[in-house]
Amino acid sequence: MQKNVFLGDEAIAQGAMDAGISSIYAYPGTPSTEILEFVIDSIKTRRHSIHAAWCTNEKTAMEAALGVSYAGKRAMVCMKHVGLNVAADPFINSAITGANGGLIIIAADDPSMHSSQNEQDSRFYGKFAMIPILEPCNQQEAYDMVFYGFNLSELYGIPVLLRLTTRLAHSRAGIIRKDTVEQNELHLPADPRQFILLPVIARQRFKALLQSQLSFIAESEKSPYNYYFEGDNKKLGIITAGLAYNYLLENYPDRIVPYPILKIGQYPLPRTKIERIISECERILVLEDGYPFIEEMLRSYLNHHKIIGGRMDGSIPLDGELTPCKVATALNLPTCEGSPIPSIVRPRPPSLCKGCPHIYSYNALNEALTGYSKGRVFSDIGCYTLGALSPYHAINTCVDMGASITMAKGAADAGLTPVVAVIGDSTFAHSGITGLLDAVNYKTPVTVMILDNYTTAMTGGQPSAGEGKLEAICLAVGVEKEHLHVLSPIPKEHEKNTEILKKELAYNGVSVIIPRRECIQTATKRLREERIEKLQKQEA
Ligand code: SF4
Q1: Is residue 353 within 6 Å of ligand 1 at its C-beta?
Q2: What is the pLDDT of residues 461-489, one digit of tens each?
Q3: Residue nearest atom 5 in ligand 1 by C-alpha distance
Q4: The whole model's pTM is what?
Q5: In Å, what is the CA distance from 354 to each residue of 254, 358, 469, 527, 533?
Q6: Of 513, 525, 310, 340, the residue nearest 418 (C-alpha)
Q7: Which among 60, 127, 250, 321 is placed 20 to 30 Å from 49, CA to CA?
């Protein structure tokens, strides 16, 4: 039996490959990025036995995975929690179409917002879609659950959501691998109308989804991931979900917890097990990372008038990542704060790399806007968001992928001119193009800067879907040729760049400025790889 030490993300990736996936799609987003990277680097992908691809955005990734499932093969799609908002349309509808080949959607949540705009909990999306949800408590479960999830998906013809959080995605542990499963043969859905969501069909499919709920609950009742641990002290019963189970055990070094524990790893909730712990114990403590998802249900439709502790009564803070220390506090145990952090690893404010091309774009923009009142620059999500910080103070917003252009349009519609939208090349392809089309259609006075560094830099340098096509895309959606400029963001071009920006800020229509220079990090990596390749050729 093969043993490996894997990140949670890598365990999922290896699990998918061992469980017979044919295709995997994703848009990069922390903390989910490493799943697809791991599959892309695998021998199976390099030998073309698995199709692994970065997509333009999470919606296209979700739809491609649904297409693979339609064709009868196993597919996985991976995203961070906010990516599930982008994929929400096909995600929710996939619960109605159902799956043919096994389909698993990975949503990696980021409690405490280590690198995200919010803390949203993807379990609500799974419940909203009414599909089974899996939530691993460690790397081994993350690996095993992929096999289990594909089987569940194919048994009920339903997509399965696998939710994990940052700490599990990005920490390592040993896992034991299973025997590899062969990929499915191509086979189309038995019901040829299954994937046609015309209302007359969708209504039938929705009824079938509702009827499946009892089966999903029955599966949860017998799931190996929903486990009831006996405990002598019935003054308290603890319900844990996902990683919280590990945090609970960490507070008991001998792993002997005196209270009954219900460990949840599969949803919908196993009602019988929930009712057992509620009836057996005097009060309940709910430990879950994210929103009070289980706790809310216990306090409403499962309300047995027991005292229920968790995030909603302040036993655990309502916001932020769950930690072993927070669990200790909730259990009145001594907290386990570690040693003080040495000064050399003290947190430092994030900043653009020295020599980053965005620095020179922002210097020119700030100078071009001199003389105008503040608050005119709408930005987006990427390294360039750091332009909000000192010393640049160059941007005023960052809301979601693609919001820069559409928010700038709204502000211009409200009468604020000039306005600027700043967006990266990858984000522009992800969800900026349609906003630009809106601005062009209404001839909105907005200056759009597409900061082109040839990559998706913030998540580690994945390819950018619009590479080599940005000017063609802009012209195709109707940007006028004379108001489309490509700049070189380097110090010696500063005066020229500033003048072009000033001129376009004064234009009463849509202008697009593309400052273009490779990200320093990807350039360094590329040059290093080229040097190694050259040396290898010389030695051969
Ligand atoms: S990774 Fe690249 S784009 Fe991001 S700050 Fe560094 S140089 Fe700039």
Answers
A1: yes
A2: 999 999 999 999 999 999 999 999 999 99
A3: 352
A4: 0.94
A5: 49, 10, 28, 17, 27
A6: 513
A7: 60
